[in-house]
Amino acid sequence: FENQQYVKMIEKENQRVHYLETQDEEKNSEISQLQSLTAELDSNTKRNHKQLVHNKNTLESLVKTKVVLVAHLDALQKQMELLQLQNKNQHRDQFEETLQMYEAIWSDYKSKYMSLPLAQKLVSEEARLARSQVSHSHRLQQKQLLQQRIQAAKDERDFQDWHRAEKKLSVAKKLVELENALKEKMALQTQLQEIREKNVPVVPEQDHGDNEQDQENRAGEEPERMEDETSINVWDDEGKTQEGNAPQDLSCQDMASPPQKSDDNTETDRASRGPANVMK
């Protein structure tokens, strides 16, 4: 029994030893890997350090070179500007000399050309053409202004004709109404006369004739008075004035005599005098 226990203990120890050996091998492999990585890092660090030193040296040299190059660039820029200015001045002097030469030639040819009769005639014709153009533009403006005035006058005349026609229609309507009123008045006077003849006693023939004559005169004066008022209103409509006022744009002679009427106005007067003549 004890031997079995020792055997088990030995087996356990062997297993533990095997496990520890395995772990030792793993640790050794890790150590070797870490050592290789450390060596690689050392080499990388050395290489990077060398690169850094090289870059620093290069930067210092580039900074020094930049200062030199900037100074050289400034010098070249100034030199180029100076050369451009000199070249520009030189070319400008040459161009000015050439221009003066051509201007002298032009003035010489111009003086010779202007001395010719045809050239002088051309100058005079150009001046006359300029004056004609100015006059033409002025007349064109006047023409446009006159056309505008003519158009405005035409529009006003059309409006006046329409207004006059409207007035004529209203006058004709009033005349018809007046004729109807006169007819009614005549009928009423006839009825009144008949009633008076029936109710009033007999009077002498002379007095009776005088009364009839007075009634006829009054009956005739009423249409004539209304006819005169209508004629005055018609004359005012034709003269474009208000009732009771004389036309503003008529002369003294025109104010002394009534305005001449057209055929339409003549017909209107005839129509207005019709009822009065009937009454008489």
Q: Would you summarize the structure shown here?
A:
Residues 198-223, 261-272 have a biased composition (Basic and acidic residues). The protein is an all-alpha fold and 280 residues long.
Strand content: under 5%
Order of helices and strands: HHHHH
Task: Evaluate the radius of gyration.
Answer: 67 Å
Number of domains: 2
Low-confidence stretches: 201-210, 221-280
| End-to-end distance | 184 Å
Broad shape: elongated
What share of the residues lie within helices?
Answer: over 70%
Overall structural class, as computed from helix and strand content, comes to mainly alpha
Structure summary, number of beta strands:
0
DSSP summary: helix tally: 5
Average of per-residue pLDDT values = 74
Describe the structure.
The structure is a single chain. This protein is mainly alpha-helical. The chain folds into two domains: 1-115; 165-279. It has five helices and no strands. Helix 2 runs antiparallel to helix 3. It is elongated, with a radius of gyration of 67 Å. The N and C termini lie far apart (184 Å). The relative contact order is 0.04. Mean pLDDT is 74; it is low at 201-210 and 221-280. Residues 73-105, 171-198 form a coiled coil. Residues 198-223, 261-272 have a biased composition (Basic and acidic residues). Keywords: Coiled coil.
